[in-house]
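subagent[fold] <- orchestrator: predict structure for attached chain, return tokens only, no commentary.
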Amino acid sequence: MGLRAAAMAAAITLISRPADPARAATPRCSDDQEHTSPIVATPSEQTEPPAIRQNDLPITVRPGTLALLADTLAGRSIRVASARVVGVFDPRVFLVDTQTRLFPIRDRDRVLVFIEAGALRVDPTVLVASTVTLTGVARTLLGMQVSHEVPWPAALTPDAVKRLEIRAAILATSVRTPEGVDLLTRSSSDRGSNR
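subagent[fold] -> orchestrator:
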């Protein structure tokens, strides 16, 4: 089944590949016409597509996906949807997993959320079990511990991280409800730096 899918992908690539510009510029000759040298565009005439920077558009993922691909997504702008809050360590650090109707049978693959600027303006008892949408930068757990951008909670010892099944982190610039209500409070210095 895997070979068949690979063959189909290769066929699609060949079909969708743009024509070779040098070949397209070569005049077609019949046998009785003298063959001329191909017309090839000069470098100034050739146009290359603009490079797409990695962090232009956030990648939308669910917490479980971020947890599984933490090493691949680390440093990229992401938007985490369907994140259910399962615990709050302090006003700048809380824990999420993927919002599902069924209880997870195997790994929970949780994500630790660090608020880059400001703090939560919602009481933890109200926030826990709520669904939020996060925007920020994907991080590995080691990256967050070493960077010291937001203090690492003392309660999160290596044993606690393993027991809580925390696999990744996000340095969040935005925490909102599904309908878009902002859940952060920012100081006046934070507001000025975000402009």
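orchestrator: received. Logging for downstream: The radius of gyration is 25 Å. The first strand starts at residue 59 and ends at 61.
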